[in-house]
Amino acid sequence: MIAKLTGILDDTGPDWAVIDVGGVGYLVQCSAKTLSHLGIRGDRVVVHTEMQVSETDQRLIGFTSAGERAWFRLLTAVQGVGSKVALAILSALSVEELQRACAQGDAAMVARANGVGPKLASRIVNELKDKAGGLAGYTSPVGMGGESFAPPPGNAAADAVSALQNLGFKPMVASSAVAAAVKELGEDAGLNDLVRVALKRAAG
To answer: I need a surface site. Which of 25, 35, 42, 190 has the fewest CB within 10 A?
Structure first.
């Protein structure tokens, strides 16, 4: 599975971009916000990706951050939300706005996205409200480019953030420390290693 592309921005369209990686052009579908952050043709870019495979199609979805990708996964887990609708929501709302809308049950904000009616917007905020609450305050800078850190609920990074908060660290401090630990150890790092490194970061 392709999880990330690092290469040159070769071309863009209304909802897609072509990333040249070693002479191979990867077509990725993107939200409007992702496209606006990629820059201009010839720029070096890093795109987090989600691969979707069906009987008749396979496609790559591109994101500027792992946090945006995590929210895409949460959105597409809601009945009635496919990749097109999820990208429309991520085009209309930033990760922070989407977090806030779900946590506060603000269906009207989600309904601002093209193709999202009041009933679907209500279903989205109702199903994701608890998960958004678990992610609240977990968005912080990671590395260059202003990437946001929003680990999906239940994974090691989210558990590590929770562990640091239980030890008395403020949410933003815990999130920043775990984000640094993930960057150092990789996204597949286990909970114990993440907590160990994050504690050093938070205490330092």
So the answer is: 42
Tokens 């929501």 belong to residue = 89
Is the Cβ–Cβ distance between 130 and 136 less than 8 Å? no
At 148-189, the pLDDT tens digits run 455 655 578 888 887 887 788 877 677 788 888 888 888 788
3-class secondary structure per residue, the chain = CCCEEEEEEEEECCCEEEEEECCEEEEEEECHHHHHHHCCCCCEEEEEEEEEECCCCEEEEEECCHHHHHHHHHHHCCCCCCHHHHHHHHHHCCHHHHHHHHHHCCHHHHCCCCCCCHHHHHHHHHHHHHHHHHHCCCCCEECHHHEECCCCCCCHHHHHHHHHHHCCCCHHHHHHHHHHHHHHHCCCCCHHHHHHHHHHHHHC
CATH number for the segment(s) 154-203: 1.10.8
pTM: 0.65
pLDDT digits over 23-52, tens only? 999 999 999 999 988 889 999 999 999 998
CA distances from residue 101 to 59, 83, 134, 194, 200 in whole angstroms, order as listed: 29, 19, 13, 29, 33
**Averaged pLDDT for residues 6-14:** 95
